[in-house]
Structure formats: structure tokens, C-alpha cells
Amino acid sequence: MTSAAAAPDHPGLLPGSLTGAVGATRRTTRDWVVDSLCFLLGLGWVLLATGDALSPDPKFAAPLPQPWMVPVDAVIGLVCCALLWVRRRWPLGLAVATLPLTIFSMAGAVPLLIIYFTVVVHRRTAVALAVTAGGLLTNFAFSYVRPDPELPYWVVTAWGAVLCLSALAWGMFVRARRQLVVSLRERAHRAEAEQQLRVEQARHLERTRIAREMHDVLAHRISLLSLHAGALEFRPDAPPHEIVRAAGVMRSSAHQALQDLREVIGVLRADTGAAAERSPAGTTPERPQPTLADLPALVEESRQAGMRVTVRNRVADPAATPAAIGRSTYRIVQEGLTNARKHAPGAAVTVTVEGAPGAGLAIEVRNRRPVGPPPEIPGAGTGLIGLAERTTLAGGRLEHGRTESGDYRLGAWLPWSA
């Protein structure tokens, strides 16, 4: 007798095609089946009740005051059966309009009970109780208008009340069950939406991390290119072997920069789902990240570019440094050397790394004030911001600026658990 599909017409109501806003909702196949069964059930009861009323045996007849009321009752029952097809649109209105008919109509009892059940399922509890109270009042009057030939008045009235309250209990159970199903469905949809949001956030964070790595790597290599190109520009008469060496460094740096850029752009353009399917672990394979053991190679690369770099590595076993701390240290030194090339070309740079498990790891990149104006090398100005974020996420701190002696100092401290 009920349907589960439609949108509620006011807050707190269960979705169903019997609500007031259902006019714009198309009946589903289940709705048509349920409506057809309700109509046939109501029509069968109309025929049975009309036959009983016309029966000459008083045991099966609940007589009406006037004989002409029998066909009238049959017509009322047929009209109520027809109303079952539109009860989804106006359940409460039909229940209120047909409530007076329950005083004397036996043929319309089943169709009217179906309409009442519809109200209980698809309207608030207060509304359902109000309609129930009206039905109980008309039930008292029905036993006077159409007394049963064998059963006493109070027995008939009690059976009518039991039937009405049973329909109320059943309808409220159906309504509560549907609300539970709707709540579980909404919870599942919300969980799915939250999962998609987490995936999007993970993608965004991964792309941000890749962009930060691209800045750290490309800024370092492009600054090397700019430094060597500037040297060739101002020293066209340099010895051939120096020109060859500078050209080799420029070619190598350009090749590495293009390779890094190609990898980053490939990751950014790759579809995450396809990458997850290709990777057994569900993640895109990455190239090995630098560690503290790679720091000498980074310094040597800067020395080949003409920088005067002094390294004081006081870590007993660089290879034993945790990967996350080593990677952060590498990026901090890389950014410090890049900034020194940009803003203090020719100045001596001192790199100090010291620490131990339990005491933490301290990094310092210090360079003297440049003698002349620094060259104009373009930059985004976000390198130190990225380093500060990286250091903060690692639980450390970052400092940078001029010292009292005029040197520029980039210092950081990273926690290193024992």
C-alpha cells in the first residue's frame, strides 16, 4: 500500500511519492503495482459489502436506515476506489474530505483505510494522530448508524478502534523503517563524498609537494646556468679549457633541468586513477629522493660552477640519518647555495651541518656580503617560504637574515629522535 520514492514536501518527512510535492514525480513500476493492488482490493471489498447489504439473510447484512442508501453506499465505495489513484498527491486532503463518509459507508471502508494509512506513512506523527482521533470519533457514530445484527454496540466499536489503531501502528513502523533507510543512504552518500574530498585533497597536496620540489631543483640548476653564462659573457677571452669546462657544466645542468621538468610535468599531467592502476601499491612511482649522503655531490656541483664553498659536516654517520631529515637538510643547503649564487656571487659560503640522535640536527649556510651589486637573476621569492613550511612540518625551526657582522645566514634546526 505504500511507495518509497519521492522527495519530502517539508523537513523531517520521509521521501515518498505520497507527499504533497509528488505531483511532479513520475510513478515507478513499483508504484503502479502497489496502486493496482490497492484498487483491486478496494473494488473487491465494495462488491462484497454491497452484496452483503443486499443479502436477504439478516446474519450477513448491516442494514441501512433506507433501502436507497445501499446503491449510494456502493457509489461512494467506487468513488473512494478511484481516489486511490490520486492519494499520492493529496493524502491529507483526501483523508479529511472523506472522513465524514466513515460514519455510514461500509463499502468505502477499505479504500478509506488505505487513504488513512497513506497519511500515517507520509505525514508527521501529530497530523496522523489528529486524523486518527477523527476516525475514532466517527467509529462511535458508525455503530449507531449501521448496527450489527448479532454483535453488541461496544464490541463493534472496539473492533473498529482496534482496526484503526493497528493501521496507525503499522504505518508508523513503515515510516520509521523508511526514515532509517533514507538516513543510511544519506550517510553512505556522505561517506562517499568525504572519500572523494579526501582523494582530491591528497591530489592537491601531492601536486603542491611536486611543485615545491620542482622549485628547489630547477632554481638550483638554472642559477648554475646563469652563473656560467654570465662568466662566459664577461670573460670571452678565457682560456679554451675553461670555456669547455663551463660549457660542459651548462650542458649538464640544462640536461638535468629539462629531465626534472619533464618528470614533474609528466606526473602533473598523468591521470591519478590510471597511475594507481599501473602501480601495485596504488601510488605513482617516484625517483629516489636526496639524503644527507648526497650533500657532498651538491657542494661539488656548486664548486664546479665557481663558488667557494667550505663544508663542515660534523655528523658521524650521514648514511644513518633518517630519510626525512636528510632530505630536508639537502633542500635547505640547496636553497642556501642557490640564494648565495643569486645575491652574493663570488662570496665565500660556509655550510655547517652538525647534530646527533636526541640532540637534533643544526644546519647553517652563511655567506659574506657581496662586493658589487648582485646580478639580476629572476626568482619567485618563495624558496624561503617553502623551506619554512617544510621545516615547520618536520617539527623544527628556520631562521634567515643579516647578522651583526653583515653576513647573510640561513639556519635551521630539525628534531632527530634518539
Automatic annotation (TrEMBL):
Residues 206-271 form the Signal transduction histidine kinase subgroup 3 dimerisation and phosphoacceptor domain. It is an enzyme of class 2 (transferase). Its EC number is 2.7.13.3. Pfam families: HisKA_3. GO terms for molecular function: ATP binding; phosphorelay sensor kinase activity; protein dimerization activity. It catalyses: ATP + protein L-histidine = ADP + protein N-phospho-L-histidine. One of its GO terms (cellular component) is membrane. The chain crosses the membrane at residues 32-55, 67-86, 92-119, 126-145, 151-173. Keywords: ATP-binding, Kinase, Membrane, Nucleotide-binding, Phosphoprotein, Transferase, Transmembrane, Transmembrane helix, Two-component regulatory system. This is histidine kinase. It comes from Micromonospora pattaloongensis.
